[in-house]
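Troubleshooting: if your tokenizer reports a length mismatch, compare your output against this known-good record of 416 residues.
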Amino acid sequence: MILSRYERMIARRYLLPGKGEAFILVVAGFSLGAVMLGVFALVVVMSVMNGFRAELFDKIVGLNGHAVVQGLGGQLPDWRNVVTIAKATPGVTSATPLIEQPLMTTFNGRVEAVLLRGMRVEDIQTNPTISTNVVMGSLKSVTPGSNRIAIGSGLADALGAQVGSQVSLISPQGQTTPFGTVPRIVSYTVGAIFKVGVYDYDKAYVLMPMEDAQSLLLMGDSVQMVELQTTDPDRVGPILAPLADKVGGRAVVSDWRQMNAQLFEALAVERVVMFCVLSLIILVAAFNIASSLIMLVRAKTRDIAILRTMGATRGGMVRIFMTVGTTIGVLGIVSGLILAFIALYFRQQVVDFVQYISGQNLWDPSIRFLAELPSKTNPVEVIGIVSIALLLTFLATLYPAFKAASTDPVQVLRYE
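Known-good structure output:
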């Protein structure tokens, strides 16, 4: 919108009304504040939800892969052949044999339910989700025959165990006697404690070499599944379709969407709902801008009539009031973005401060899954939020601007 010199001067004066028009200035200030809060809320909430989904996806996929080939009946005796076929499938980057079995563990009289995961030593040490999150001990000590395991930090806290503690794993698959099956109880030394940041994993996971897991569960040379990584997790279905046909009848292929469908669908629905609800704040701000401009037009009716008699065009009046309203919106958007980025940068400190003031645990990992409040700002979403705010602000200026342009100077100045 190109303004002439006098139009810029008048728009600048109307942005700061005189002493007798302080109420209009107050309403305009509220309009600016409403736009700022709307943009702030949208950017912060969408960034946090994006961060939550991305962090949760990275943690889940880091431990469970993009898909798994699970043997029928719970065992996969020919897992080496399955690994070879999987690695030969286009789009598959890795295939890792796994054993995963729910068990019980006990230490100093405390009993906890755990999820035993048996992996090859090289897979344990090269998995970035595990190897980069060791808080105590070393994964190098967890080797076949060493009788050492790695446990999650939440499980260590629940048991009161530390590196070097002797914990016992209880497996129901024990020896059969005339009186029934005797559970198998084997003691292991804690060699490492890790914290991946997902409460459910840190509270339950026990890692050990695959050979030791096979021995504990009396599985011989079998495994339960083969974990797969692909080049594109969003296309995991088409990529693994040929593999599913080849292993059909002895195993089934399940991808991350099927294994966590309810969780990620709920997150997707919540993102859409939150975006729509918070967008109403910007809509209310647009109505505030419209109301402040209407009051400004009413207050400046005589001035508008004089300007029209001096040669000001209807188009000039439209541009002046559209500039005033749009400027309020732009200032609110910029302020909201600055405030949002500051809040996102100090998000965890803000949560800790509110928890300290309120005395309530606002971010309980057992409920929120993750240990800390995540954030991931999507530039495309930010551009979309800014565009929506600008569009609503622009539309809010149309009626007041055309109302000002339709002012009849003859009627206004008749009795002057």
